[in-house]
Design brief:
It is a single chain. With 362 residues, the chain is an alpha/beta fold. The chain folds into 2 domains: 117 residues, Rossmann fold (3-Layer(aba) Sandwich), CATH 3.40.50; 197 residues, Dihydrodipicolinate Reductase, domain 2. Helices cover 28% and strands 24% of the residues. It has a 9-stranded mixed beta sheet, covered by helices on one side. Strands 3-2-1-4-5-6 form a 6-stranded parallel beta sheet, with helices on both faces. Strands 9-10 form a two-stranded antiparallel ribbon. Strand 11 and strand 12 form a beta hairpin. The protein is globular and about 60 Å long. The two termini are 17 Å apart.
């Protein structure tokens, strides 16, 4: 407590650059080492950050300087790397999802509890001013009792721009497990945990064609559902309608809308930290933009690590990430069974974030 968190990163792919930029401006966090199966990639990732050691994965886990491991590997490796860190007595913060399956995620949480270490998990975008300002509006009663929400994400698929998109189309990927964590985490932050779900899903193509990079034109197999939709029934009674697709071209629908008895909110893209929150109250003729009132301003990926320095239970914590994964797996199971299903887990609604500048955390 009060001392910088010495951090080691495992996985230096594309997302690591955004985390490195945030970590570099957080005095609460000190990056001491990185590891990747491709050591050249690891060296290139930290070239702008002198003094950071490049190690093998086992070396990083054994390094006594490292207090916590930031796990930025592909989803299929999340549980394996997290369990290695926990076995080494280190806290672990994972890129979403917590694991490729709920069973693996449970193993991670159980191992962490037995070892007395903490688990955190992205997305921490919900800690930004966008979702947090919307949450404050709900908590302050500006829309009355919440009754419903919609969450919509439509794209034609990441293979059009990603040079190595294979992991998006194997277990642990797909539009729901890839992008759903942003939307479901935001819905839980806004409306609380989910009690039950009913879903439907489809897979329109058996293969996808890579559209960029050295493998352009190569076909890759699709083994997961690429369009998933359904209804989440929150403990509060509110109903959220979710649509996640890698099969559509575009949409003009708001990323998230929340509707109450006295008003409605348009919530910014939960894949971003900020953006305007719009309110229309009963009797209004138009929407108005709410002033920014809560959350980390000027935040970037990794801002959730701030809680690791001072909080026993981080806001972007393991129990929330597990519940979000449980909701998504339950939705897929419902889609395949054709039946409404209870969500086995629950979690506390994450604590709100008072308005503060992430830049001021330097």
């Amino acid at each position: 407590m009060g001392q910088p968190l010495n951090l080691g990163i495992v996985g230096c792919g594309a997302i690591s650059a955004q985390y490195l930029q945030t970590i570099d401006r957080l005095p609460q966090v000190r990056l001491v080492a990185v590891a990747d199966l491709d050591l050249d990639r690891a060296r290139e990732a930290v070239r702008p950050y002198p003094g950071v050691d490049v190690l093998g994965v086992a070396e990083l886990m054994a390094d006594a300087r490292v207090d916590a491991v930031l796990n930025l590997t592909v989803p299929a490796a999340h549980a394996e790397v997290a369990l290695m860190a926990i076995a080494a007595g280190k806290d672990v913060y994972c890129e979403k999802p917590l694991a490729a399956t709920g069973a693996d995620a449970r193993r991670v949480l159980e191992a962490a509890e037995a070892a007395g270490v903490r688990v955190g998990c992205a997305p921490d975008t919900v800690l930004g001013t966008g979702t947090q300002t919307a949450r404050m509006a709900i908590d302050d009663g500006l829309i009355g009792r919440p009754v419903a929400a919609t969450a919509t994400m439509m794209t034609p698929g990441h293979e059009r721009w990603h040079p190595h998109p294979d992991f998006y189309y194997v277990p642990g990927g797909g539009p729901l497990l890839d992008m759903g964590p942003y939307y479901v985490t935001s819905l839980v932050t806004l409306l609380g945990p989910v009690a039950s779900v009913i879903g439907a899903a489809s897979r329109t193509r058996a293969k996808r064609t890579i559209g960029s990079g050295p493998r352009r034109g190569e076909d890759i197999p699709v083994t997961v559902d690429t369009h998933v939709t359904g209804v989440l029934v929150h403990d509060s009674g509110a109903l959220s309608t979710l649509v996640m697709s890698f099969d559509a071209v575009a949409t003009k629908a708001a990323n998230i809308e929340v509707h109450g008895e006295q008003g409605s909110l348009i919530v910014p893209d939960p894949n971003h930290f900020d953006g305007p929150v719009l309110l229309s109250r009963l009797g209004d003729q138009d929407w108005r933009t709410l002033p920014v009132s809560a959350g980390y301003a000027e935040a970037g990926r990794g801002v959730g690590l701030i809680d690791f320095v001072s909080e026993r239970e981080p806001r972007a914590g393991g129990s929330l990430a597990f519940h979000v994964l449980d909701v998504m797996e339950s939705l897929l199971a419902s889609a395949h069974s054709g039946k409404a299903l209870d969500v086995p887990s629950t979690c506390d609604r994450p604590r709100p974030v008072a308005l503060r500048s992430a830049a001021a955390e330097r």
